[in-house]
Amino acid sequence: xxxxxxxxxxxxxxxxxxxxxxxxxxxxxxxxxxxxxxxxxxxxxxxxxxxxxxxxxxxxxxxxxxxxxxxxxxxxxxxxxxxxxxxxxxxxx
Length: 93
Known about the structure:
single chain, 93 residues, mainly alpha, 87% helix
């Protein structure tokens, strides 16, 4: 494994740890709770939306996607860190 690859893996590991720490912080928990609330609100509105109102449906779908994306990105950073740690610790690495 090259030094450049090792550095990339180490950065991914560090970012994963930072994302985990962020999610455990008051701010992280607050933002995830707010994202969950946004998703729930948009889903409730979507259930009651006029099926012919494409503009409202698109807006609500976009709201849900944004709120979910934040959670996915953080989870992805954590998983990339875990995967990078495994790769770095593989025999022969």
